[in-house]
Design brief:
The protein is an alpha+beta fold. It is 28% helix and 21% strand. A hairpin with a 3-residue loop joins strand 1 and strand 2. The longest helix has 13 residues, at 5-17.
Length: 194
């Protein structure tokens, strides 16, 4: 992927997930910048970290839940770089995903189970935002396809990146809200945008 493709894709991702004023192309690191700054060590270190966490069944799930529990407070999510999205994603028969709050600074080729690129919220009691899930978005630069507790990531899945022909993987993980359709299913019938 060229260094010009990734900023364009990041801009499209911003447009899709956030209000236009919330994103700046100049602030978005490119995949090339990321790999140049860290060499392949960033990808290799994250893979080693993932393997270390994956030693026990359910270890990544516990790590993700512990790492994101502070995001029950939307203030903490914003402080960590997650930008609120006013649009709630739902499907009339499947349920909802909720609002995707994405941290563009970490949408890159690295998978870190403790640092999901997106946290998902749905209206809770009194319309207060309730943390329900996380989503991982990993740019494919030729590294092995990531897995979460042995479950392989979906190929593609993020519409603006697909539209920009940016190879990537994504995975929803319902760490904070039970999903009767499965831990890794994108839509949850227990979640609503209302």
């Amino acid at each position: 992927m060229s260094s010009t493709t990734f900023p364009r894709a990041a801009s499209l991702l911003c447009i899709s997930f956030f209000a236009l004023s919330a994103c700046s192309q100049g602030d978005t690191p490119t995949a090339v910048d990321h790999l140049s700054a860290h060499g392949n060590h960033g990808v290799d270190a994250a893979a080693a970290s993932s393997k270390a966490v994956a030693g026990k069944p359910g270890a990544m799930l516990m790590a993700a839940k512990a790492a994101t529990s502070r995001f029950h407070s939307t203030v903490q999510a914003e402080r960590a770089g997650h930008v609120p999205d006013p649009h709630c994603v739902s499907h009339p028969q499947l349920g909802a995903m909720g609002h995707h709050w994405v941290n563009m600074a970490i949408v890159d080729p690295v998978f870190d189970p403790a640092r999901p690129e997106a946290v998902l919220y749905a209206p809770g009691e009194g319309k207060q935002m309730k943390l329900v899930a996380v989503e991982y978005i990993v740019i494919d630069v030729g590294q092995p396809r990531p897995s979460f507790d042995g479950h392989l990531f979906d190929i593609g899945g993020v519409p603006p990146l697909m539209a920009a022909n940016v190879p990537h993987w994504s995975l929803h993980v319902w760490v904070h809200e039970s999903n009767p359709n499965g831990l890794y299913t994108p839509f949850n019938p227990n979640v609503s945008c209302n």
